């Protein structure tokens, strides 16, 4: 059995603010340990359930938060950016299932710790085929392109609620209750690990009945920026349509093209070095 884990940080128990989410924050190193412990708990349960091949992507911030020196032998770790498949880089049709760990609700959701979609600074919202989506849904469609189902989503109660229509069969693992954007009532880490282990086990036991989330045919992406300039400049490209002052539309032949365009739009800058 081969399993992919896409790991984000905002949905980890005990993590709520900027002070924990990047290397400039005073409590980031400690938060990296909490994050790594949750990933290790899921890996351990997957191994107990018979998964011999596991790939993890560190998909938060710099992509350099998980402690690779604590990963058990045989586990692969995807780090840093850019990546065409974003938070799902490394997924392909050889995987039996995927897990979204530490995820958070989307920018259009009024509830949830650090509710945002890919960039809290730059992106207002993201819609696919006319429906607003969060990062978990984008990840699910990328996995779905390869026929891989999302077996489990972990994070606060808001994200677990948000994905119930896109991924009704996936196993939720709620490790904290959101109070506001920067506040939560969290389980203690040891209790969060118990929740993650039991949800992982249930997800693996049910994996054959869980269907992939698939967007077939061309996919229309409406991307709304917080500012004017990215919208104006992207609309110079012949395959991009400007819908209004903040919004552009791109139509991809499949979700992979959508992901490449989205990653380009968020990462390109002419002063990139080296
Ligand atoms: Zn993140």
Summary tags:
globular, Rossmann fold, 274 residues, binds zinc ion, alpha/beta
Please explain how this structure is put together.
With 274 residues, this protein is α/β, with parallel strands linked by helices. It has a domain at 2-116 and 135-209: Dipeptide transport protein (Rossmann fold). The chain is 28% helix and 25% strand. The protein has helices at 18-21, 28-48, 135-145, 157-162, 189-205, 229-234, 255-267; strands at 2-7, 53-58, 76-78, 97-103, 123-128, 131-132, 150-156, 171-180, 183-186, 219-225, 240-244, 247-252. The strands form two sheets. A seven-stranded mixed β-sheet has the order 3-2-1-4-7-8-9, sandwiched between helices. The longest helix has 21 residues, at 28-48. Residues 8-10, 60-61 line the site of zinc ion. Zinc ion binds at residues 8-10, 60-61.
Query: What ligand species are in this complex?
Result: zinc ion
The CATH superfamily name of one domain is Dipeptide transport protein
From the 3D structure, determine the CATH topology of one domain.
Answer: Rossmann fold
For the secondary structure, the number of strands is 12
CATH-scheme architecture of one domain: 3-Layer(aba) Sandwich
Q: Major sheet, described briefly? A: 7 strands, mixed
How far is it from the N-terminal to the C-terminal residue, by CA?
39 Å
Strand fraction: 25-35%
Number of discrete helical segments: 7
Poorly predicted residue ranges:
none
Return Rg in Å: 18 Å
């Amino acid at each position: 059995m081969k399993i992919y884990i896409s790991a984000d940080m905002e949905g980890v128990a005990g993590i709520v603010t900027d002070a924990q989410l990047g290397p400039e924050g005073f409590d980031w190193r400690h938060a990296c340990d909490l994050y790594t412990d949750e990933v290790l708990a899921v890996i351990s349960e997957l191994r107990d359930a018979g998964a011999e091949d596991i790939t993890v992507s560190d998909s938060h911030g710099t992509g350099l938060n998980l402690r690779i020196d604590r990963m058990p032998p045989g586990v692969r770790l995807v780090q840093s950016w850019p990546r065409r498949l974003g938070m799902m880089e490394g997924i392909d049709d050889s995987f039996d299932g995927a897990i979204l760990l530490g995820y958070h609700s989307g920018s259009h959701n009024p509830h949830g710790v650090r509710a945002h979609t890919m960039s809290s600074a730059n992106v207002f919202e993201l819609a696919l085929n006319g429906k607003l989506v969060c990062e978990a849904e984008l990840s699910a469609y990328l996995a779905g392109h390869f026929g891989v189902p999302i077996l489990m989503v972990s994070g606060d109660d808001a994200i677990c609620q948000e994905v119930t229509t896109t991924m009704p069969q996936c196993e939720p693992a709620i490790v904290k209750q959101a109070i506001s954007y920067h506040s939560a009532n969290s389980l203690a880490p040891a209790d969060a690990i118990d929740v993650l282990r039991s949800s992982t086990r249930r997800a693996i036991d049910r994996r054959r009945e869980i269907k992939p989330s698939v967007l077939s045919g061309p996919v229309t992406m409406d991307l709304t920026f917080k500012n004017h300039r990215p919208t104006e400049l992207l609309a110079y490209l012949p395959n991009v349509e400007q819908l209004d002052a903040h919004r552009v539309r791109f139509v991809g032949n499949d979700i992979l093209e959508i992901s490449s365009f989205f990653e380009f739009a968020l990462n390109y800058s002419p002063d990139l070095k080296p």
